[in-house]
Amino acid sequence: MAVRTEIDIEITPAGEVKLKVRGMPGADCLELTRTIEEELGLVVEREKTSEYYQAAVEAQESVKIGED
């Protein structure tokens, strides 16, 4: 079952842009938002959630060929 990853983008009345990533444990979220951050400009603050400190989940597939 695939895990759903979401990026919430909030623009405050003051014009600040806030990004929040959900469903992606580990530091991969930083790579996911890198392009958006580069287009927006200077990152003023970064707050890491508890998901950031979780181990990233790796997909693993097993194939067995032959008789039991």
Give your account of this protein's structure:
With 68 residues, the chain is of the alpha+beta class. 19% of the residues lie in helices and 18% in strands. A two-stranded antiparallel sheet has the order 1-2. Strand 1 (6-11) and strand 2 (17-22) form a beta hairpin. The radius of gyration is 17 Å and the shape is elongated. The mean pLDDT is 84.
Structural class: alpha+beta
Strand content: 15-25%
Strand arrangement within the widest β-sheet reads: 1-2
Helical coverage, percent range: 10-25%
Q: Provide the domain count.
A: 1
Order of helices and strands: EEH
Q: What descriptive keywords fit this protein?
A:
68 residues, 1 helix, 2 strands, alpha+beta
What is the fold's blueprint, element by element?
Elements: E1 6-11, E2 17-22, H1 28-40
Antiparallel strand pairs: 1-2
Question: How do you describe this structure in short?
Answer:
This protein has 68 residues and is α+β, with helices and mostly antiparallel strands.
